[in-house]
Amino acid sequence: MKRLFCILLLAASACRNEQPSTATQAPPQQQAATSAAQRDPHSYSNPDQVRVEHIALDLGVDFAKKQLSGTATLRIRNEANANTLVLDTNGLTIRRVTIGNAPVQHRLGAADPIFGSRLEIPIRPDTQSVTIDYATSPEARALQWLEPSMTAGKKHPFLLSQSQAILARTWVPCQDTPGVRFTYDATIRVPRTLLAVMSAENPQARNEEGVYQFRMPQPVPSYLLALAVGDLEFRPFDTRTGVYAEPEVIERAAFEFADTPKMMQAAERLYGPYRWGRYDLLVLPPSFPYGGMENPRLTFLTPTVLAGDRSLVALIAHELAHSWSGNLVTNATWSDFWLNEGFTTYFEHRITEALYGREYSEMLWLLDVREAQDEIEALPPGDEHLYVNLAGRDPDEAPSIVYEKGALFLRLLEETAGRERWDQFLRAYFEKFAFQPMTTPIFVNHLKTALPDVVQKVNIDQWIHGPGLPPNAPKPQSEAFARVEQQAKTFAAGGSAAAIEGERWSSHERVHFIQSLPALPPARMAELDARFRFSESGNSEVLSAWLEKSIDARYKEAYPAIERFLTSQGRRKFLRPIYEKLVKNPEDLAFARRVYARARNTYHPVSQATIDSILK
User: Fold this and answer.
1) Do residues 435 and 562 share a domain?
2) I need a surface site. Which of 85, 89, 462, 604 has the fewest CB within 10 A?
3) Catalytic annotation on 415?
4) Per residue in 599-613, is it b (16+ CB within 10 Å) or e — as a string?
């Protein structure tokens, strides 16, 4: 099996040109460790010849034009004596390129609908920096310009960015690949009534000029460039953590995420010191397409986690965990995406177990396993692997199975090695490869060197390059869920809703109860709704599970709740499965199209692209 695995890795590597990968600020011995990193098929850039080390932004924010405009000055290292710097752009208007004070003749290539255009800039061997004067398009996919009506306060506009996976190039000319890291600083000019924040050292209050200075001293990949501008207030949790939100939301947010400092302490006890200075949260308007985005120093969050009872804070544990797995040690290409998300999902479970106990964590594990099993059934061959070859595809199409399957793989390694030994391995891994890109072959080789006896007991190739969940996948156990499943079985067999002992169920138990129900007639769904008022739940996870089950049952009384849910938030995790179920029935398809026509302009472009595809 070892020989077959090596052959597969060599075959995967042969599909790309090799490039040296030297992480900014990484010591020489660490640079050597990543020298086999693969060339990123999603980037036009040439970091194997010229590498961007620092970006200085000077940008004005124009809400009327829906445009960022100004300059990006790139400090470069040209170790190959190349005569051309190649950058990624998408929809940018390049007004001028200068080296020193002299303009140079740049070349902008033809536009690809996914990858944008290559920007070629002539340089000399001694060129140290390049300045690009540019403006973004109002249609820039990374930027969402929200009208006041789309915010909590309804008075001020809001701007948010989402650079992952390859959308940074729609607002900054850069080497838009996770294999390149750079430091950055920025001057951002905004209307005086608003506050600007970035994935950097941030202000905590507005100033009178509306001009904000930012600095990110640790090197980051381009997908972690982030900007938000809005009517924001700040509340500290302690000296290292706090939360930003609109004034109408800030008190709810401060209550909901009050355990953030405890999570920080638990994470550091597990896998070493937090390396980014502060860890703050930003609660965005509801159109944000993801649960959270792990932008360094400032996690971007959906308001759908504001349940009022701190029941959905596992999302904070996930985004915090990215400060080690993803932000600190980063997938070198998007085909290696599992090295970010599988590790982070595993780490999230360890944080929640440390804070809330094993039973709580096991419930979350089981929900993840069910989600993985459901997704695997719908995925085409190859997409259920951990390593997914995304060359030629939009990396936003990366299947989310890598989250749960990757986490289960790491749990298997933990159970095989023993927790204490496994934790020592991970702690050393984050330290050794800090601020560097990581590939699947490099990780596997490191694992073989550090834990050879564990590798002999685990079929790594089957996990990384094989379909589905292998037979040796860990099987989480939850007594609470076993009781919930029995209640669901009893009700489905004709039992009374009044007899269900669910008053003290956690939100996870409610979700599991709903998902454990078989197909029911509408009248039986109505009994449950009258008992638990699922259609009115303020917990987005419970509500989403119930609405999906309601579509399966054709429970029409829930359809007003479906419309409210689809038009009040834009989180793709919730939107996609509901729209996918609605298109299966002609009557529901007409309903879905009517709702989407009303909601589409409130969704982020990432969510729009997903739902457009479903409703074609």
Assistant:
1) no
2) 462
3) no
4) beebbbbbbbbbbee
What angle in degrees, to the nearest 10, is found between the helix axes of 401-417 and 419-432?
Answer: 120
State both tokens at 96. 């001028």
Q: How many separate domains does the chain show?
A: 4
Integer angstrom CA distances of residue 461 from 217, 313, 405, 502, 540 = 38, 34, 13, 43, 37
Known catalytic residue at 233: no
- Residue where a domain stops, chosen among 202, 226, 250: 226
Pick the catalytic residue: 44, 403, 559, 579?
Answer: 403
Length of the chain: 616
CATH (domain of 266): 3.30.2010.30
C-beta separation of 515 from 484 below 8 A: no
| 319, 384, 414, 548: the active-site residue | 319
- The total of other beta-carbon atoms located within 10 Å of residue 382's CB is 12
| The last residue of a domain, from among 465, 498, 523 | 465
222, 238: one domain: no
Q: In this predicted model, what pLDDT tens digit does every residue of 409-436 receive, in sequence order?
A: 999 999 999 999 999 999 999 999 999 9
Instruction: Tell me what percent of the chain is helix, strand and coil, each rounded to the nearest 5.
Output: 45, 20, 40
Model pLDDT, residue 606: 85
Q: Residue 38 has what pLDDT?
A: 63
CA distance 225 to 598: 31
Share of the chain above pLDDT 90, in %: 87
Residues 498, 456 share a domain: no
